[in-house]
Amino acid sequence: MRNAAFIVMVILMAAECPWLLAQQSDQSGTAAAIRALEHEWVEGQSRNDNRALDLIFDNALVYVEYGNLVSKGEYLSRIKWIAGSQLSQIVMEDMSVRIFERTAIVVGTYRERFVGTGKAQVKRWRFIDTWIYKKSGWVLVAAAAAPMPQS
Amino acid sequence: MRALTVTALLVCLAFSMASAQAGRDLNQESKILALERIEKVQAFAARDLKTLDAILDDAFVEVDPEGRTLTKAELLARVQMVESLQYTLDAMVVRLHGDTAIATGLYRIKGIEHGKPLLRRGRFVDTWLNKNGRWVAVACLMTPASQ
Predict the structure, then answer these.
(1) Is A98 close to B61, i.e. CB distance below 8 A?
(2) Which residues of B11-25 are buried (b: 16+ CB within 10 A; e: fewer)?
(3) Count of beta carbons in the 10 Å neighbourhood of residue B102
(4) Is B6 helix (H, G, I), strand (E, B) or coil?
(5) Taking a contact as any Cβ pair under 8 Å apart, which residues of chain A between 114 and 133 contact chain B?
């Protein structure tokens, strides 16, 4: 009787495994897609590619830049009118992705190289970005960063 | 004539549904605003760990104004170390995306930490998730005032 119960338990656990593996595979696939979108944002900005950015930004995007609240329209307008060389250069560092069904939270750091008072400066930031899966795919709904101490 | 009646009925139904949805959204936004006030203003100031534990998701992550990350456990531990705290929120706006809400606003923190005066102000962005009918905070970033 005990052996039978044990066998039933093993069979049930084995039946759950593919589902669990599929879930894990989904999550890692989603995380990879989100990371790719983060890089797409950086590259889109460096190319002044408003069209690419327009596709990945939600229309109700909340973007906090240097402590100021910037709308999607304001951000895209700035990218459009400033030559790529004048925009700060962003280099993504590490990032972690947490998936909550149709919401993804990205926490990471990046280095920003910009020209201030005539000389190049590098500043590091830690950011949190929120992505949501909508009809058109994953879109960015919130992005903000806090400055890290100079090392 | 029948087609016109059916069309009119459908239009009325559509308006009614849109109005009901708008009402539900407003209700959810009010809930988030209330949670922000309960979480930040009241619970932090009172060092109410039980309320904070209920409001913050177990996977909650915070980035503080110095760019440091804090888990839920680290944040709760930090709250216990603050001797006094006065938290003010202003200009809060909530944007709903189904079961996800983004709350932004301005914060002002005044208090004493490790025996030293604490004064910070800036902007925050919080992400809330509706899990089984209950809103929980999953992320918070606080950035200093205009840099």
Answers:
(1) yes
(2) eeeeeeeeeeeeeee
(3) 24
(4) helix
(5) 124-128, 130, 132
Q: Which two tokens stand for residue B62?
A: 């915070």
Q: What is the pTM of this model?
A: 0.86
Residues A106/A128, Cβ–Cβ less than 8 Å? yes
Q: CA angle B113-B40-B116, nearest 5°?
A: 10
Which amino acid type is present at position A65?
E
Cα nearest neighbour of B126 on chain A? A142
Count how many Cα atoms sit within 13 Å of the Cα of residue B10 in the half-sphere of its side chain: 6
Please name the residues in contact with B14: beta carbons below 8 A apart, sequence gap of 6 or more.
none
User: Does the beta-carbon distance from A126 to B69 stay under 8 Å?
Assistant: yes
Query: Which letter does DSSP use for residue B40 in this model?
Result: I
Query: Complex ipTM, two decimals?
Result: 0.88
**What is chain A's percent helix, strand, coil content, to nearest 5?**
45, 45, 15
Record the tokens describing residue A130, joined without a space: 């929120």
What residues in B contact A105, CB-CB < 8 Å? 61, 127, 138-139
* Residues in A 76-95 with any Cβ partner in B closer than 8 A: none
Tens digits of residue pLDDT in A30-81: 999 999 999 999 999 888 888 999 999 999 999 998 899 999 999 998 777 6
Residue of B nearest to A60 (CA): B95
Residues 64-123 of B with CB under 8 A from A: 64-69, 95, 97-100, 102, 104, 122-123
Whether residue B104 contacts residue B92, with contact meaning beta carbons closer than 8 Å, is answered with: yes
